[in-house]
Specification:
Elements: H1 3-14, E1 18-25, E2 35-43, E3 46-53, E4 65-66, E5 70-75, E6 79-88, E7 93-105, E8 108-116, H2 118-125, E9 134-143, E10 152-161, H3 168-171, E11 183-186, E12 192-201, H4 203-208, E13 248-249, E14 252-253, H5 274-279
Parallel strand pairs: 2-12
Antiparallel strand pairs: 1-12, 2-3, 3-5, 4-6, 5-6, 6-7, 7-8, 8-11, 9-10, 13-14
Keywords: Signal
Amino acid sequence: MSSLLSAILFTTIATAEVTTSMWMPSPYSSEEMGFYGSVVGADGDRLTLALTYDNETNTESLGFYDNSPETVTFVGSTSFEAVVTTADISDNTELTISLGCQARNRARPTCYYSSNGPAVYSSYCSEYLSYTDIITSTELYTYPSDENNPETVVTRVETYDYRDMIPDFCLSGSTIPESMLVETITMNRNYVAIYQIVITAGEQKLKATAGATLTNTAASVTAMVTGTAAFQEGAQSGSATSSPTISTVAGVSGYVEEINAASRVTLAPVLAGFGAAVAAFVL
């Protein structure tokens, strides 16, 4: 059974209030942010929670976006993946944020981040609204005469149409190609925080999973460290492994290598929740 599941089950038995914790790269301390969680599903090593900020969190200070409840799937205690759809309050356009993080090495999680939707599309393609100029240049080249040829004047005309620089998806489309949207970030251990989650609903799903075995082995993640102890000085368990394969991380199939061509505009806003945690350190 997942150590995260075990921790939640133990807390359920020991106290009236079901609490657990999660790690994430974030600029906010545990004093500034916490969560309420509802158990959506528990299957072997996978635990899915619907999260909202708790009453002690000052959501107005977290970003410039309205929040929807976020559904986060934990794979064991070393990896999680999340997708949230929110709204850009500046123009009320929709934005979908995908994030997956895994602790492949001690205290240095690797996160895979992407965002898409009308808000990102509008922000990216609006940069090309001014690309309307057509510039024509004319150059004259004079070649002097010689004993075999008379003086020759050659006219060279070149036309630069800035409209040709506009990406096709900005001319006819509504989303940016996914290949441009994935960023890979390896976080410094100083930017990892551990947050409390108070489970408010769905505890019965945890109890029903108490005797379950791992059924989704393709989605399991092994790492040198496990659990929140991975981000405490001197904690280390397990053995080193090669780069794990994840069935789906941040909405991208397979193990995602860094895509240097990804547009930074998709990471520029200070996003709330999980998006803010990553975006704050890659600007």
